[in-house]
Amino acid sequence: MSDIELLAPAGNAAALHAAVQSGADAVYLGGPKFNARRSADNFSLEDIRTYSDYCHLYGVDVHVALNTLIKETELDALKEYAYELNDAGVDALIIQDIGAAEIIKKAIPDMTLHGSTQMTVTSLEGVKYLEDMGFSRVVLARELSEREIEHICKNAKAEIEVFVHGAICMCYSGQCLMSSILGGRSGNRGRCAQPCRLPYELTEKGKTAGSGYILSPKDMALINELQRLKDIGVASLKIEGRLKRAEYVSAVVGIYRKYLDNTHPVSKNDMQELKNAFSRTGFTDGYFKGELGKNMMSHKNPSNAKVNEFSEAALKRADINSNIRKIPVNIIGTLKENLPVEITMYTSGTEHFGDVKYGFASGTIKSEKAINKPIDKNRVTMQLLKLGDTPFEAEDISVSIDDGITIPIKEINAVRRQAAQNLMNEIKYREIGRKNEFEFEGISRNKPQIKLTAEVLTIEQARAAVKGGIELIYAPKRLAEDVKKLSEDITVVTKTSEIFREEKITTDGVLVSSPAAVRHYHDKEIYGDFRLNIFNSFSAQHYKNLKSITLSPELNLNEIRALSENTEAALEIIGYGRIPLMLMKNCPVKAMGKCQQKKRIYKLRDRKNEEFPIICNEDCTAELINSKPIFMADKAGDLKKLKINAVRLIFTVENFEQCDKIINMYKYAMEGNTVSKPEENSFTRGHYYRGVE
Q: Which residues pair with residue 631 across a beta bridge?
């Protein structure tokens, strides 16, 4: 099964060493900028150069995580950083930001791009979108079942990478705003505070219906599914853990390596070793098997269930001074009369290195006729076997020597060392991709007239929007036709599913949340929702042909202003509403043994007694929305200074009267009138005046 890549995490040098020595085929790591694990030790640029050489020596590829959203002010730094990573000889960059991908493609056309799991790719359509952009690999969302993964693998051109072990988020990766909105620490910027690992109460109509670590899943483990993953056609198996210690990496990588190389059933001892390395009350394969619910959750314990224990073998591989992993080589030694010794070393196969790699060295001292005892073939062979601290071990040695000659043993040793060094240099060599130097150019953009739009969940909310003169209404599929009947003067745009699935849409316009949906609904009038994570002008320009795009709610006013100066796209922002904090496949209500059957009777209550409503979508995904709405009517003057096209009012739990009041306030304010803000602690400004780091 060695033709499937085993990809290991490396949060620091010790973990990287442990991964390589434990049998990883590739490692992924973060550098000093733009990586989604800013609390890991990570690597300096000089470290990346050094450890890329070390990894390449063992035929191990180096993938660098450049998987955060990029601000407008960071675009130059991103470009220069990409140049530096290219010069360091890394093999691939893992990207979340569509705009970052556009910049890197332009700057370094030969760089290999992998679509991060932060891109929330859950479908073949999503993979094909990234294929068309030039991505050679896509890391799928952890939520997919084996059937869904198989369908993608069988029909995609790009390599498919899946997570097989480690922590999983309650929310789809790339779609979580909980840490950001509540604490200012954005997961999309590598600073997640993990509010999902805190205790909550589940309330039903205000009364406690359950409690515990309601948003805390168990860790994933697909160690028993390796043959199935190979049969499906998965190219790379990814182990999570850039925040984990070297011993953890050694233990987990070592066991996965063992069962990738052997198809035996996993032993109880090895499964226990995985649990000893780290476990939240056991493991889950619920997403892969399509078995959601309580068994996926660690409701009683959000962290490691026991003190870590590691086997002697794992500890030995994790020792930074260990050199257990050896590369088999063939050695040819030739010693002819009156000529220097010549030694050739070459790799014995193409499994890790592609073409066979060679290292050749010739001595500086010529052999002579022996006066006493001539050197023999066995003695030369013994010297060639002494590969010492090199990563090589001799698989086959061939020695050709003339009779009756001699040469100093230290000369043979010196040439052997040089041949080994030359082979190491040949193995480590990576051709640096060509670079295109360019400057960012601004785009002249006139200040448009700002319109109000509304997003609704109920027909009463839609009626309020029509009464208030809103001309464009976003409505879920189940409601779109009824909303159209309310007035001929409105444009109704169907909000498609947040996680892409094919739907029969009857309206001309669609509101989409993913590149997959952009591709699928190409014959419709497409409006991009905030889930596209538009953070900079390159991302906005990528989607400039859409009717409009809603910017990320993590941007502040200054960042929106800077972005808008450099794009032709029609821009929308969220001016009112409860921001969705989490989008979940495994419904937390069902996992607690309940079901609200779309009645919105359940909420989560935190330690501060804030209550967060749970909305059930038509596809049974669940959204956790903020306890307070964004309110910006009294700050309409600040919004009007922006070069944006629309301000959206999102209605979720509001009734007709509340919607009517809010719409009138915003209309009045946008006309230049002064309105009062609501009572203190009943609303939020979101990130408009703070932003995220």
A: 576
